[in-house]
Each structure stands twice: as C-alpha cells, then as structure tokens.
Model the fold of this input.
Amino acid sequence: MATKTKAKPIGSMQMTKQMYQQQASKYQPKRNVMLNCFRAFWVGGTICLLGQALQNMYIHFFGFTEKTASNPTVATLIFISVLLTGLGIYDNIGQYAGAGSAVPVTGFANSIASAAIEHRSEGFVLGVGGNMFKLAGSVIVFGVVAAFLAGIIKSVLKMIF
Amino acid sequence: MDSKKQTARISRQTWHFAEDVRVQASAVSVGPKEGEGPLASYFDQIHDDVYVGQQTWEDAERKLMENAVTILLQKASIAEKDVDVILAGDLLNQNITTNFTAEKLAIPLMGMYGACSTSMLTLATAAALVNAGYAQKAIAACSSHNATAERQYRYPTEYGGQKPPSAQWTVTGAGAGLVGIGGEGPRITYATMGKVTDMGIKDPFDMGSAMAPAAVSTIHSHFQDTGRTPEDYDLIVTGDLAAVGYPIVKELMRAQGYAMEDMYNDCGLMIYYPEQEVFAGGSGCASSAVVTYSYIMDQLNRGLLKRVLVCATGALLSPISYQQGNSIPCIAHAVAFEGGI
Amino acid sequence: MEYVIAFAVGGLICVIGQLLLDVGKLTPAHVMSTLVVSGVVLDFFGIYDKLIDFAGAGATVPITSFGHSLYHGAISEAQTHGLIGVVTGIFEVTSAGISAAIAFGFLASLVFKPKG
Done:
C-alpha cells in the first residue's frame, strides 16, 4: 500500500504514481469509440453476410443441410482470411475495422496464419509449429476449458434431476 | 590531477568533456517509410525495400547497422582497423543485431542496452572513453527495425489487431557516429546519465506516458548540474516521446521553472509526416539516432544550430515483465553538443 | 431478410467486441477469450441455439459460435456416452474450423512471407 502512495521525484517535483498518471491521462489521445463501433459493425456485419451467402450456396448447390453447411462455410471464410493475411491485406483491414475483423472466425484464422507466416524464419518445426498458436492459443484453451466445465456441470445436473 | 577529475565529473549524473571530443563524422541508413518523411534529404542511404535485400527481418536490421557504419567509415576516410572500439546496441533480445554486425566489422565491441535511449548511452560512453584516452577513435551506433520490434514485443506483422492512437511506429534504420579528439565536427561538451524512473504506467501501447518522467528527470538534472537553462540551447530534443509524451514533458518542465517552448522538439515527431499513419509518432533506437546523426549533425556543422541537447528516452520492459503485470521502467540519457566551431 | 438479420446480429456482436477493446481497454486476445467463453455460457442456458435459428450466419460466424460448438460437441457426446463424452466430444463439431485454420495457416507459411 505504501508504495502506491509514496511520492517519487521527477526532477524537483515529488509525485505519487497516481498523481502522475492523472496528469498524463490528460494527454491520452481520445479513441473515437463511436467511429470504431460503426466500422466494427459494418465490417463485421458484412463478413457475416458473406457467411450467410456462402451457407446458402452450400445448401442449394452442394447438397449440404442447414446443420452441416456451417462446416464448409467456416472453412471457406478461413481460407479467404488466410489468403488476405498472406497477401498483407488483413492487417490493414484489422486496423480499420478493429473488432469487426477480429471477432468473426476470420480473425481467429488471421491470428494463426499471421503467426505461422511470421515465424517461418525460425524453421517449420520450432518456428511455424511452435508459434502458430501464439495468439489463438488462449481462445482455444479458454473455449475448451469453459466447454469442459460447463459440460460436466450440465451432465451432473442431468444425472441428479 | 584533482582539478581534471573535477571537470570530468560535474555531479553524480553529469560528465564534462574537457578535451576536444568531437563527432568527427556520422552516417544514417534507413528504410522506405523514413525515406518518405520530412528529413529524407539528410539521410545518407534510403532503402526502398524494408527487407533490405535480406531473407529475414533480423538480417535486414543487421544490414542497416552494417551499412551505417560502412558509410561512416567512408565519410571519415578511415578503415575498420583504425577504430578502437564500437559501442552499440539495439532492441532485440541479447542485442543480436549488434553482435553479428560487430563480428563482420571486426571492431572490438562494447554491446550496450538502453532500449530507445541506446543512441545517447553509447555516444556518451564513447565520448568518455575518448576524453580519458582509452580510445582514440570510437564508434557509437544503434539500430531498430519496425518488423523485428513488432514481432518481439507485440504481434506478428500480419496480425489484424487494432492499435490504439497512443501507439508508436518503430523507426526502421541505423545511425552511427565517429568520436575522436580534434578535427571537424560538433563538440560533445556534456553528458547526463539517467536513473531508471517508473511512474507506474503499464500499457506497452503508451510508451510516451511511461518515458516522459525519465526525460524530465534527466533534463532537469542536466540543467541543475550544468547551471544551464533551456534558453542556452537552440534545440532540445527527446528521442521518442511522440505526441503523447511530448506535451507531458513540456508541462512538467514548465512546472519546475524550466519552460521548454520553441526550442523543444521530439525526434519521434520530426521523423515522420502525420499523414504517414504512424499513430503517435516514431519510436525505437533509430528514432533519436537517425535524427541526431543526420539532421542535427548537419545543422550543427553548418552553424545553423549552435548548441543542442539530445535526450534519448528508453522503455526498459520485456514481454515477460509486462505479462507478469509489471509497470514499465524507463530511462533517459542526454548529450550536449556545441556546433559551428 | 435473413441477410439483413445476419448482417445486423453479426455486426452487433462485433460492436460488443469493439467496446471491450475501446472502453474496457482489453487486448484482442482477452476480448476473444471473453467472447468464446460467452458462447459457451449462452449455449449452457440454451440461448445460443435460438440465436442461430434467428440470425443464421450472424451467429455462426463470430467467434462466440466457436464456444457454442465446443459445448455442443461435449454435450451431445455426453448424452450418448455418459460423462466421458464431455471430453471425447469437445472438438467434434468445431473440427472444420480448427483443422482448416491449422492446415491453411501452415500452407500459407510455405507460400507467403510477412510484408511488415
């Protein structure tokens, strides 16, 4: 506790960390939250729109059912995302759209592809293989752990009731 | 003997160079983005390929440092073997850029790490060695590369994560200065070595706020120790505080009675045009090195600037220290130059 | 009409992500992890299936659906094979997504170089 409130010298002034951070925060460039949300909305929406179109295409032309069509749909979106990542375009889209390109499954694919491409210089085994999940790893880990716990809880509840 | 020691160590942090220590030559090699910035005409070499013709980003950075030193030696009309020591550093783990480049140059190496403050850390130390007679000719050099810094400290370069407006753009480039006694070139008169300062900023996408206190601490010590004020300088620059850290320094220095107004600028703001989409501005070892060893040396040589203080600022974090919840400790080292003499 | 709903719902989920980034000041990895777990939780309470019926790709494309698929796989296996099904079934439904991402990502590393 003492370390948080203890004043430190900056030149001839004595300031606590809190005091400094308050002063510094005045100069933080304000994020344009409205604009970012708008961009995230339309880019994310468009990607989902594309997904919907792909899904319908797979149902009507390739004989998939409502249930099974999401598989090739997701695979196609991932393919497009990996391609755009490799071509060096996805990072620009990402800076513009923020969550709009990160939240759809395309963002997941981009995190894996960008890490794989980046670390190829360290070889395929340690570089590509070892670093591929640098960013996506936490998504997979937390998804699996959450599903595991939720699955156990639901199954146990079913057994009891 | 005692009086000489007195003029060498002015105070705990500030050194005075009584001998005629000069930056006899300087050279800078940069990447394409820097070559499109406002200082392009001052750079010795601009590459149009961010890979600098190499296979990996790390090799590209090494080539930049090697080129900077090679051009420097050409400009000074000397060979590698005429240089007693090279003091150099970069941002990468274990200073690999410096290590591999020094091996190629076959000059005795003193590798140093100061993050983005390395330019002045190495230059001040080189000046001290030359002043005291431990080296006749010393080179101070450093480098940084946008891609190597991104992939080590932040994200893979093709990752689509959105950066906030306080983020900075690591400068791709290398700068080198040749330090010796006499000859032509700006005199190095004083150096103030900084102490690590940490005011609890934790966000690696907001280095400006983290580093500003270190800059204030060092610049303030410099003024106190030398008895100088901001008006004694034609130009005072910080290394890479950029749009967020620059106003913080101005405010804190003004509050302490050292108002730095027209003469104060920041290399991270000088090296790029705002239209180049560099968020808050430039950062990296090369930010201060590239501006100092090209533009500032040129202005001093031509007598357009008489007295300049360069305060390079560094953020001493690692990816692990940040992930473990630590804040970002920072440091700043300043060197004073006298030109047109 | 289904296109409009897919666009709107997908866009809204992305807006939630953007607010977590800008207002919550979370990193992208934290935001994704939060959304994936949300998908699990919503499916636990039976809400996510309804959302998919309503919004189609607007609910299956965002990363939240990944959490939903993981949980779905676990539960459907558990229904047929008992408690052990929770572990054997987790990756069943999401296999397409993960396999595609790994395979294409690896192929990309063969073909592409990072451009900085």
Remarks:
- Residues 2-111 of chain C form one domain.
- Chain C touches chain B at residues 21, 27-28, 114-116 (CB under 8 Å).
